[in-house]
Design a protein that fits this description.
Layout lengths: L4 E4 L6 E4 L5 E3 L6 E7 L2 E6 L12 E3 H8 E15 L5 E15 L1 H5 L12 H4 L7 H33 L6 H73 L1 E3 L4 E3 L7 E2 L3 H6 L1
Helix pairs in contact: 4-5
Bound molecules: zinc ion (2 copies).
The site of one zinc ion has 8 residues, from loops.
Length: 276
Amino acid sequence: MPDLISLVCPSCGGKLQVSPNATMLTCQHCGNEHLVKHEAGGITLEAYARCPQCGRNDKSEKVTAVISSQSQEMSGMEQKNEVVLDMQGRQRMITNSVPFTRKQISILGQRLAPPDEPQFGPGLQSRGFIPAGGGSLTVGILAIVVGAVLLIVSACFLLGGISLLVGSSGYQAQDTVTMSVIGLIGTIFLFLVGAAGIALGIFLIVRSGKNKRAQLAEYQRRVQEEIAERQRIQSTWERAMERWNQLYYCARDDCVFVPGENTSASTSKMKEYLYK
Ligand SMILES: [Zn+2]
Ligand SMILES: [Zn+2]
């Protein structure tokens, strides 16, 4: 096993261990990447990221390293005024000392901050499927009930008429025959209306079922569409974050660049550069 050589990171001053045959080295303190140069006098590190605008690397630093060196945690005590009521019920102002912790980041650090993670509100799925217009189902059930009642009534009339005819055998009065015929026509009419009611009811129920299935299919389609759209936005952001994690900043030109791409953008256009 080759002996490790201790070096100091040219970007942050952190201690680094490098194996003698390494060619690239990423500082575990600041994330800057360096080329390992093997020279007669020993090993030296050279910052690897060259700015495409000035062609140099002496002023370029990894953006993640800039952020961590440009932000600091502040903590201490601060005075807070508070209005309280005293024993006599009068308002009095008192001053308390309260501890605070704040993360302070420089203007440059704020300008180089990573793109915000997309936020999604509650989706269609969380609202659930609410079918519209359940009216035809109710009307259909009603039509079947009315139709069934009419069928039962017509069956009663038929049985009553038959028993009347059977009971009056031997004495065939003209009136009875006439009434039987009228009764029979009325019974047939009731039967037909009842049957039509049931048919209409079945038709309405089937149609409402179809309508509901169509609405459900449409709802599921829109849910899938929304999920796909949100995944697209999320993965676009993840790609931008990947680029941001590779991003370097050149202080000479106030620009950012991804090493190896030979393109750069001013810090004000950083988001567009990351999302391109
Ligand atoms: Zn470093
Ligand atoms: Zn530059």
